Amino acid sequence: MNLVIQASSPFNPVHQKPLVALARGRRAVEIDAHAIRIEDADPAQRPDLDVYCATHALDYAFVEPGRSLADFGLVTMDMDSTLITIECIDEIADFCGLKAEVSAITEAAMRGEIQDFNESLTRRVALLKGLDADVLGRVYEERLRLSPGAERMLAGAKAAGLKTLLVSGGFTFFTERLKARLGLDYTRANTLEIVDGKLTGKVVGEIVNADVKARTLLETCKAMGIDPRRAIAMGDGSNDLKMMAAAGLSVAFRAKPVVREAASVAFNFVGLDGLLRLF
Question: pLDDT tens for residues 79-123?
Fold first, then answer.
């Protein structure tokens, strides 16, 4: 296998020799200023690589030689804490003084400690009842930021011919704006009910939970006429696990431990554009 090693800052050449030895690889080739590729690496060496890379803030991934990004047809992304840096519902709750309470439920749900995502979302949204809907626009304008490397990753995926799907347990208010801003092909999220300019504390229609995320990926692949193995799925929380399992390549982005363990690749330090360096 090829072993791709990446750093968030310029890659320090001092790591090259020990990494080649640890991976029992043949040689190292520079990809760019931030990454190297070690050829003929041994995947059985993951435990030693885990320790070394975690110690030196490096990300690594084993990739089959000869694979290219163009082998895939779809890149699917979670929104909150994946494509963007915030959890939108937590920031909305901040405007009614309940951020700590809502954040605690969000964190437990993303770690997989709350098994019923529908219940956790319903509980959190109920706390927003009566809030002025104008707050959503303030969260988008004042607090929402793209994750590092997001735009470069999307540009690279589009250049390779991939379609893009943003599927979120968050809200359409944000996914639709990101779709227009970033030129995304498909989106799916929850709709907050708004009556007389106020949040009612309810969502409209089917809740986008783990099962719906996975189903949306599969339905999008079917509509595109591609095998799900040609899909890439990126996420950070336990409600992304089924979607990631349905894809041919799964990427855990600054993710909870349960997600890192299940994913094909984990990016703990580099940006989303680390995806491009794998190929």
Answer: 999 999 999 999 999 998 999 989 998 888 888 887 789 988 999
**CA gap 109, 119 in Å, rounded:** 10
pTM of the model: 0.94
- Are 162 and 69 in contact by the 8 Å Cβ rule? The answer is yes
H or E element at residue 267: strand 265-267
User: At which residue do the structure tokens 């937590």 appear?
Assistant: 90
* Cβ neighbours around 243 below 10 Å, total: 27
User: Which residues are part of the catalytic machinery?
Assistant: 78, 80
Start-to-end CA distance of the chain, whole Å, equals 12
Copy the structure tokens of residue 259: 């997600």
Q: Would residue 21 count as lying in a domain?
A: yes
Tell me what the mean pLDDT of segment 261-275 comes to. Answer: 97
3 state SS of 81: helix
Q: Read off the CATH number of the domain in which 4 is found.
A: 3.30.70.260
Which DSSP category does 146 fall into? B
The domain in which residue 57 lies consists of 1-66
Q: Give dist(CA 266, CA 274) in Å, integer.
A: 10
